[in-house]
Write a structure and sequence with these properties.
Length: 225
Amino acid sequence: MMSSFVSIAIDGPAAAGKSTVAKIVAKKLGYVYIDTGAMYRAFTYAVIKAGLDPKNEEQACSLVGKVSIELTEDGCVLCNGEDVSKPIRGNEVSSNVSYIASYKTIRLELIKLQRELASHQNVVMDGRDIGSYVLPDAQVKVFQVASVETRAKRRYDENLAKGIQTSLEEVAENVRQRDYIDSHRDFDPLVKDKDAIELDTSNLNIEESAAAVLEIVAKKLGEKQ
Ligand code: CDP
């Protein structure tokens, strides 16, 4: 059954600027922004905090059903009630999250939560598999890309602004590594859905990228009426 709520899916590779654009689009439309990457990051944080090995599937999956993840209205990420908004952006989580996101049991648990959130409100949801798997009926699907160089530079600047210590080379390596793992995992990999509209933001700034997505949204929602 088609839900009466609108879902906008924004997928794409690491650090393509999806969350920045998704937040602007959600605000403009009065929709709720759902950062699914933050959920995988929070789960990764919980695994590390419990002293378990993120590269060990059995150990990591032993926390399924025991981690509560919440995205608050003011943009914070809570993991078992603790505000983890800052540590989930650090190097330790960034270099382990794609292993955690490759485990089917963990994915299925987080996907259940994502679908539940989209079932009762209008959402802009960003991630890797939103249009292809989580919300296949999403009215609008955007696949946002940019060159590796652009993406690494953007994330490096973002980290600097947040006070996260990294080098440009380290960030570029992390972006390449996550893209590889995310597109090669067996279950639910990063792929461009057949219905998705590709948007290359290599030469667009934030405002231009958001305007381009809003244009796609207006066109798609206009077609449906
Ligand atoms: O912001 P950035 O593009 O760096 O990544 P993110 O959206 O915070 O996602 C972090 C990681 O979570 C990704 O590299 C994927 O491994 C995983 N992820 C996923 O598998 N599926 C999603 N829907 C969202 C994120």
